[in-house]
Amino acid sequence: MMMRRYDLFVAIVLFLSLFPSGLFGQESSEMTYLADEVVVSAGRIPITIKDLPRSYSIITHEDIENSPADNVQDLLASVPGVDVKKRGPEAVQADVSIRGGSYEQTLILLDGMKLSDAQTGHHNMNLPVNMEDIEKIEVLNGQASTIYGANALAGVINIITKKGSSQHYNFSTEGGQNGYYRAGLGLQIPVDDFSNTLSISKTKSDGYRHNTDFDNLTVSAKSGYEYSSGNASVMFGYTDKKFGANSFYSSLYPDQWEHTKTFLLSGSASYNVKNFRFIPKFSWRQNTDHFMLNYADPFHAVNDHLTNSYNGEFQTIMTSNIGSVSLTGQYGFDKVNSSNLGNHDRNNIGIAAEFISLPFYKIKAVINGLTYKYTDQSWQFLPSVSLSYAVSENSNVYVSYGKAYRVPTFTDLYYQTKTQHGNSLLRPEHAETWELGGNLHQSIFIFNASAFVREGTDLIDWIKYTPLDVAWNAANLTNITTLGGETGVTVSTSEFMPEYITKKFSIHYAYLDSKLSSGSFISKYVLDHLRHQLITEISQSFIPGFSANWLFRYEARVNQKAYFITDIKLAYKLQNFTINASAENLFNIPYQDMSGLPLPGRWIKTGVAYNL
Q1: What are the residues facing 480 on neighbouring strands?
Q2: Is 111 left (phi over 0), alpha (psi -120 to 50) or beta?
Q3: Which of 1, 236, 268, 350 is the most exposed, having the fewest neighbouring CB atoms within 10 Å of its CB?
Q4: By three-state DSSP, how is residue 548 classified?
Q5: Average pLDDT, stretch 329-351?
Q6: For the whole model, what pTM was predicted?
Q7: Which of 392, 477, 483 is nearest to 441 (CA)?
Q8: CA angle 370, 374, 378 (to 5 degrees)
Q9: Cβ contacts of residue 468 below 8 Å, gap of 6+?
Q10: Residue of 312, 245, 258, 257 whose CA lies nearest to 285
């Protein structure tokens, strides 16, 4: 194993050393560099993207407006290294994972606060926000447990909402095939030093095949206050989803049906005193899940789950002449009341530290450490360190190492049916990750490349030992080694090419290979990942006000047939109105993310939006 890791890193070092001198050498004086202006929250201390020693992706507000996607799950499908395994369309339910990790190894954040569901990771993407609320989405590839705690084993997705500091009104409506319609309302109304946002959306469809209908409602509101030494905000969100779950959890039952409701209340503040910044945060997330194995027999095999998660933290950031230091105290409490799982609760406490040094001979260090304790577990310590070297003003190469962990969900521990057996003796899973890469950020050109090795121990999966087994069993696996990497280029081609040909172009590729150290069994989740992922996006502008945005995805999943999906969105802006038409899976390609769950063919939608 050590030789495989060494060979991989040597290959990447050679690859980086062969970059054209124009990329990492002297920059053109005609270009305006904007990298210093882009600040990301990959860690506890904000850092400019040109200094970030990690693999990272940002979905900007402009990307969201231009994308053919109309929900967060489909947006994330355009990010390299992110695997979105949908059970149904339009954000009904999807498992989102990063770099071949399980969906429960990906931590979901909303404005920096945890949203991951303690009952089951299948509900992690029950997001009580609308597309109109989102300013940008930051995706951190690789471990971040030393920063955010449990479940950030493979990566982090941070959804950052708008502040609502400028007055804005939006109304949109859309209709399409399969009895689809969507209506949305968004308001931004600042009052003195207060910013306020409100959004409401309703989405409904008859379904694209038997028992795939859905009816979703989402309401979100946020208020913020700016004062001389900082700011404060509070957010409320609610989403209600009713949907046919044809074969979602077992192909033996095509008439499964589910109804979930998610409520969120969160708040944060910041207060600055000289070289110190104090940031308290809290959140309360409640998720209810009503599941029927057969909607025609509502009194048979019905599960009701109520999960409450409370999280609080207090962070202090200090800046000095040697760098910045952050200390964060974290506390969390999860409780489930369930007709199947029983009644259980657990708490966790942790202290996280981060240090970012000032550059020393173009070298910058980012050091993290987390000590934590869960109910009935001993204290543990997780370290990570990243070193970056500034090759030029707007490019760097980096190397990083870190440990991460995930605790089992209540479903992993206690769920019991004829076809699924939980395991109350499950241990937390752990991983160590090594990464090497480089980034280049210029005004019209962005390039990145990275390679990583992750060694996971005691990974949790649902398995069968033979194809004849009836039930899936939750178990801690032996070691799994994952090798992989991502590379990509984004170019603003309008600087040197007519916009009707292409205004913006990007192409990204990700590769993964996971090997089980020992044992032989059928994996339901852990070993079912994308081997190859190729994503291309093209933006065009034919005449003033008219645009076309294309998304091409080639995905080759382990043990499944590869597929190539094309999505397109056409839009025409006329004063305050925007008329749009989109086609998902334009060429009607049969495909599925999960075995036995075919996804929609061509789905055409048209709509109009009014912005003031």
Answers
A1: 456, 516
A2: left
A3: 1
A4: strand
A5: 94
A6: 0.90
A7: 392
A8: 80
A9: none
A10: 312
